Amino acid sequence: YFVADSIQFDDSLKYTTSDGRIVYGGGGIMPDYFVPLDTTQTSNYLNRLFLSNTLRQYTFSYYEKNQKMLENMGMEGFIKNFQVTDKMLNELTSLAKTNNVEFNEEGFNKSKELIKLYSKAYIARNIWNNEGFYPIFNQQNEVFLEALKLFDRAESLAKK
Fold it and tell me: Is residue 32, in this structure, part of any structural domain at all?
């Protein structure tokens, strides 16, 4: 969902738990803290890079060609220092063309920072699996970042 107000519940399915929490039947769970879906950096071009498997194909190829250098960086060094370069982005867009993903400058520019982030995260996954992937991926994961903000309040939130 993009806006919390767009979520509607059927009052006939309203239930109060023994702890006084209001919940609703009908399937699904509404979180106590709503984080709207941010689509400001997504584009059809980014979606096509994923759907065509181009992003994963490119990042695996990059890993294979640079395995020794990447592994020598270590995971912490990679997370802190590795940058996706313009040369890498050009290689990715060239591969996309061979995979029938036409370059779209507007979509590319809109999604450029996400493309760089996802590229770095997928390269890390090829080396360190999810342990390398998520510290990078979660840098832009708004739900994760909001949960971190609430972490110190977990006990009091659980009592609500």
Answer: no
